[in-house]
Each structure stands twice: as C-alpha cells, then as structure tokens.
Design a protein that fits this description.
Chain lengths: 325, 237
C-alpha cells in the first residue's frame, strides 16, 4: 500500500440490494482454525474484472448477487464489470460488460436484476481499500470476518467505499475481454467433476444417473453450497467421520440429493462425496439461477489442470496473496 | 499406525491423507507429525492443512504442483512417519464453566437420557481432560472427546436457531463450546467465560487440534467475574 497515495472515499452506496460483498481471492492458511475460504464464488469473472482494470491478481472487488445495488461515484473512476448481466446502468444508460469503462463523478451505477447469470463483479482501477482480517479482506457474513468493516458485513445504504488513489499509474492488460472469454450463463451448464473420495461406494445405477441426467439447481443455493435436484443417489456409506472438505466437493447426504460445496462451506464435513468440481466449474455453477439445468461430466485431473493453468496464465499467474500458514 | 495410509483425491489442488478409520485420541500425535512434515515438504506451495479425526486434508497451489507431484511428496512424507511426541503434552486449557439450567437448558434432558442426577452429569463431564480432535462448523469451534460413555446423548431432534456464545455442550461422545452465537443442535449444559474466538489473539482461536481441555465447574459469581454473560437462554418458539 505504501507506494500508493492516501485512500479517499470514492463511492457511496445509495441502495444496498440483497447481497454485495467485498472479495479478494480468499482467506488461506487458516482452515485448521475452522475459518472458511471465502473469496469470489465465480473466480473466473472476478479475475477478469480485476484484469480489465489493470489490478493485480488478488485485488479485492465487489461481488454483487441478484442486483439491486445502486452506487454513486464521488470522483472519476475507471471500472470494469464482469460476470452476470444484472442489467447494470450508468445514469440509466446500459453499461457494457467485460470491458473497462469510465464512471464519472456524480453518475449513478445501478444494478437491476439477473438477466443472465447471478453474480456480477465490479472492479475499480487501484482497488478497494479495506483492512485484512486473518490475512484477507474476503467477506464471510456467517463468520463475521472481512469486508470494509472487518466484520464480514454486506454493503449497506450510506456506506462510503474507499479506493486506492493513483490507480492509473499501473494500468495494464487488455481493455476488453474477447467474445470467447465471455460465458453465456443463460445456457445449461456442463460441469467437470474430478472423481474421487467415496465414488466407488455409490451404486452403479446412481453413478449412471449422476453423469447422464440433467440436474436442476435448487433454490437452496448460497455461497456455502448449491443443492442439485434429481434422482436419488445411493451410497453404501451413509456418513463418514468428519474430514476436511475442499472447494467444489460434491457431497451426497442421506436424502440422495448432491450438494456442491462453494467458498463459504464449513471446513469439515461428514457426508460421502462423488468427487470435486474443477475450480472453473465451481465458478460456472455459482452463476446458475434456481431451476437452471446442469450436467456433471467426469474429467481427468490432467486436462482440468491444463485448463486451469491456461486460465491463470492470462492473469500472470499471481499467487494467492495471503497464504499465511 | 495400525493400517496403511490411503490417499484420496480432493480435487485439482487437494489430497486427503487417511491415516485411520475410527476416532481415537491416539490418532492425534500421528496427524500432528504428518502436518509438520507437510509444512516442510510443501513449503511455499502449501495453501492449507485441515487436520480432522482420522484424516489430513492437504491443499496445495496447483500452479506450482500437479496432483501427481503433490502425491509423490505425500508418499515421501509418509515414509517412516513417527508419531509426534510433543503433542502428547499439547497445550492444556482450563475453561471455567458455570453449569446451570438457565444457561444449560438441556441438563435435565441429559440427566433423563442417561439416568443420572444433574449433579452427577456435571461432575462426570467436568472430571475428564478432553483432546481437541478437529476444528470446524464455525471459526474456533473445537470438537473434543471422548466423553464418559455414560454421558452419551444424541443431539436434539430440532437444532436451536441461536445458541449463545460460550455455551458448553455435548452430543454423542463429543463435547464442545460454541465460540460465537450460531445455530446448534447439541445438548447445552452450561456456559464458559473463556473467550474461544478473540480478534485480539494471534490466530483468533484459543484451541487447536491436539490441545487438552478441561471444563472447570465454577460458581455464577466466578463466571461473571471472569467476564461470562449470565443472560439466560431466550425461550424459543
């Protein structure tokens, strides 16, 4: 922070909407304390928003779920919005997504409702200012950790958000994402599942169902996990001794309906798992609205890793900023 | 170790190392030794280590290591693994606890289920020194055991929406104290004045896996003097 000028309040919250959270890449090295990972539910779009504003990997930006958020700029800012189309407007004019735009002092940036996808990421050149808690500013409401307040609070009406000044000094990277880089969140999602854990203990019929039918996203879906509705899956193991669970873990409780565990999941759990979604598939699932259809496809580690590494390579392979074991 | 360790995939950036099948205090020195070895062997490529009753989840940076490279490191680390002797003495914590029906509304339920008098429930629960098996559920929430088999009691059929911070509870053969107010389905016996999750403390959590914990029965006066809140449980609809 030392190489930048003093932060100043730059954005005021006019209307908070249901859920807007500050997220850096997540809180790492603390899961043995029972503290969850946090961070952007859609890492892909979060990374793009940062990239388009020239912010280095790990810079905190805003995750806006559903919409409803209204902000006014108190000075000229350069921003980018990536991820869901929440019908964002600047002074009532539609804002182009997946590219850098100028937000002038006094203009109102408003998010309406989901048109395609569920979560939009708003990055500001220079990055938002917040004090890390346990090494990260990632907001976890349930744990009361992170965010602008340090207490995990979502944005509230009247909040003043500070942005690092001098952002223009380190503008770099492309100004807009190519068409291929912009996912179409309105389409059914195909999710890569890396088989593992207790997959051998599921019945043959259940494994066939798991990978051959379209699942429906339940409305019980949040930053902890997303429940999928479909045929009941049977596992010969009903429960396990609780163990650490990783991002994207697909657990199956006794009711047979899988739950995909996302960023705010509990750190340990005791249900048998089919395996884990790849990180990019977990990102994709986080953009699905209730009732949207998703399909699970078995994928090998090596090809999933190739895809993930090429995704990260675009952003100069930044290491997660705050590993503190 | 009675069995061969098993490595199970936990996604692109993780492995579960399964050392044991069942919960036992004797697992802890092995899991502790494995954690320490992993810290050295993975160095900067390590993202997180999550020890639990029988397993260690190792999360690494997938940009630095492939799954098979991480697996190879784990196989090396497991060679000639010896239990960590230091953990045997672990850190010892005494948690001042006020056992009372106003803050431990399930004392009668546990007494009825176990066929013991409430005073005996309290005595048996506060007699043992417990080990921390795992942290999870909420920041700083430490699963401890094993409690005396006579105290074994299932969790509530319907979890409470709000369990106050400091509540001391048991379920099955485990015991715990709630660091912050959360929902919860364990049987509440009382409340501790200890600050289990404190932002002023390095790492925030008072307890770590392997630590030893004893609940010390104290009077309401001592509990309040130590900073405990004696506000009774609100009645839930």
């Amino acid at each position: 922070m030392s190489h930048r000028e003093k932060p100043q309040p730059s954005i005021r919250v006019l209307r908070a909407g249901p859920l807007a959270l500050l997220q850096d890449s997540g809180r790492f090295g603390v899961r043995h304390l029972g503290v969850t990972q946090g961070g952007p539910a859609d890492l892909y779009s979060w990374a793009w928003a940062n990239h388009l504003t020239g912010n280095p990997w790990g810079t905190a930006n805003l995750e806006i779920t559903f919409g409803g958020l209204q902000l006014v700029a108190e000075r000229d800012l350069d921003i980018a919005i990536a991820g869901a189309d929440l019908g964002a407007t600047l002074n009532n004019e539609p804002v182009p997504l997946w590219q850098r735009v100028r937000w002038k002092e006094g203009e109102v940036l408003a998010f309406a409702r989901p048109m395609s996808g569920l979560r939009a990421y708003l990055a500001v050149c220079g990055g938002f200012v917040a004090e890390p808690v346990l090494g990260s500013v990632a907001s976890v409401v349930r744990e009361e950790l992170g965010g602008f307040s340090g207490k995990g609070c979502k944005l509230a009406e009247g909040d003043q958000l500070s942005v690092h000044a001098g952002g223009k000094d380190f503008i770099q990277g492309s100004m807009q994402a190519s068409q291929e880089a912009r996912p179409d969140f309105s389409q059914p999602a195909v999710l890569d599942l890396l088989p593992g854990a207790q997959i051998a203990h599921f019945t043959g019929r259940s494994l066939f169902d798991a990978f051959n039918i379209w699942w429906q996203v339940d409305d019980r879906a949040d930053r902890m996990g997303v429940r999928l509705i479909g045929p009941k899956l049977h596992c010969n193991i009903r429960s396990l001794v609780s163990e650490g669970i990783n991002l994207g873990g697909v657990q199956v409780p006794p009711d047979g309906q899988p739950i995909v565990l996302l960023n705010d999941r509990q750190t340990i759990g005791g249900y048998p798992r089919l395996g884990s979604l790849s990180p990019l598939s977990a990102s994709r699932l986080a953009q699905c609205l209730p009732k949207q259809r998703v399909r699970l496809v078995a994928r090998g580690h090596e090809s999933a890793l190739r895809e993930y590494r090429s995704f990260r390579k675009q952003f100069k392979l930044g290491r997660d900023n705050n590993v503190m074991l | 170790m009675s069995q061969k360790p098993v490595l199970e995939s936990a996604g692109l950036d993780g492995w579960i190392v399964r050392l044991f099948e069942t919960i036992d205090e004797g697992n802890l020195p092995w899991l502790s030794a494995l954690s320490h070895r992993c810290e050295h062997a993975f160095g900067g490529a390590l993202t997180d280590l999550v020890p639990s009753y029988t397993t260690l989840l190792v999360v690494f940076d997938p940009i630095t290591l492939t799954s098979s490279e991480a697996r190879a490191i784990l196989c090396q680390v497991l060679v000639d693994l010896e239990p960590d002797s230091g953990v045997q003495d672990g850190q010892v914590h005494e948690l001042p606890t006020w056992y009372d029906i106003s803050v431990g509304p399930d004392l009668p339920r546990v007494a009825e289920h176990t066929g013991m008098a409430v005073t005996d429930v309290i005595e048996v629960h506060s007699q043992r020194t417990y080990r921390v098996f795992a942290l999870g559920f909420a920041p700083g929430f430490a699963f401890k055991g094993l409690i005396d088999p006579r105290l074994e009691c299932p969790r509530l059929d319907t979890p409470r929406k709000r369990v106050p911070a400091g509540s001391v509870a048991l379920a099955g053969r485990q015991t715990a104290a709630y660091p912050t107010e959360t929902p919860g389905g364990w049987n509440l016996l009382g409340r501790t004045s200890a600050r289990l999750f404190d932002r002023e403390r390095e790492g925030f959590s008072l307890l770590r896996v392997g630590d030893q914990v004893r609940f010390v029965s104290v009077s309401r006066e001592t509990f309040e003097r130590e900073g405990g809140s004696s506000k009774p449980m609100e009645l839930e609809s």
